[in-house]
Write a structure and sequence with these properties.
Blueprint lengths: L6 H13 L3 H16 L3 H6 L3 H6 L7 H14 L4 H9 L3 H6 L7 H14 L3 H9 L2 H8 L6 H14 L3 H9 L3 H6 L7 H14 L3 H9 L2 H7 L7 H15 L3 H15 L1
Length: about 270
């Protein structure tokens, strides 16, 4: 683990980051900030004023590697920190992060941007802002087979968190993504992707119409299958939650789940 810097040294680093117009210097400074994030000096980085220059480096004037590192630093700063969710959003990070999801960005940039948005979408206000910035169709596009598996995983995780908002549940379903999320539950998917897909479907099932659509897409047999001992516990947990949401006040789904579980146990 790298040595912990004094707060004044962190402030000097942030000052250099904001003042430098040289991509190589920016990359060097961002590498140092990344090391500090690994060392869990997150409070010192935020207190030193790092967020505004990091947001500025997300813009189209920065080289892709600088954009990737800046997005990754924001991802780390937004990890399990409600205060930082607010600070990062207030600094204007969400629109450029959404722009970086576009197909013009290299996969590594898309991956870091999606990860940052996943964390920021743990805030109810940010769920609204991220959707309003046009993230949902871009995230759905990143679920396709042309994306690397880790990118699909991050995109599904962001959709899962965004689906914690009732309006977003409708918007996400309207993209037609539900069959693709159901397909991601299948045995050909990695457990991490199965977990994120199950989580997204579970949140989408908070909408009554979506409960019907998800069940019609043949999700119930796959979700029940994921409850079995061959699935990791974290997959079983999200699959069980999705089934619970599908069954909530829906007698047809409840009966289908019961029949499927009895069929497997026989």
């Amino acid at each position: 683990m790298p040595p912990r810097l004094a707060r004044r040294d962190v402030q000097n680093l942030v000052r250099t980051l904001g003042a430098s117009a040289c991509p190589s210097q920016q990359k060097q400074d961002l590498d140092t900030i990344a090391s500090l994030c690994y060392a869990e000096d997150l409070a010192d980085i935020v207190a030193a004023g790092a967020i505004p220059p990091l947001v500025q480096l997300l813009g189209p004037g920065s080289p892709p590697e600088v954009q990737r590192l800046a997005a990754w630093a924001l991802l780390k700063l937004a990890s399990d920190s409600p205060d930082n969710y607010v600070i990062i959003a207030a600094a204007g990070a969400i629109p450029p992060l959404v722009q970086l999801l576009g197909l013009a960005s290299p996969p590594g940039v898309q991956l870091s941007a999606a990860g940052a948005l996943t964390n920021l979408a743990n805030s109810a206000d940010n769920m609204v802002t991220i959707a309003a910035a046009g993230a949902i169709p871009r995230l759905v596009q990143l679920l396709g087979p042309g994306s690397a598996l880790r990118l699909q995983q991050n995109a599904a995780a962001t959709l899962r968190n965004l689906a914690g908002n009732a309006d977003n549940q409708v918007t996400i379903a309207a993209t037609g993504v539900i069959p693709l999320l159901v397909q991601m539950l299948g045995p050909g998917s990695l457990p991490q992707i199965q977990q994120k897909a199950a989580g997204a479907l579970g949140n989408l099932a908070g909408n009554n119409d979506n409960q019907v659509t998800i069940a019609s897409a043949e999700s119930i047999p796959l979700l029940v299958q994921l409850l079995g001992p061959s699935s990791p516990l974290y997959v079983q947990t999200d699959a069980a939650a999705a089934l619970k949401h599908l069954a909530y006040r829906n007698n047809g789904n409840r009966a289908a789940i019961t029949a499927e579980r009895h069929g497997i146990s026989e």
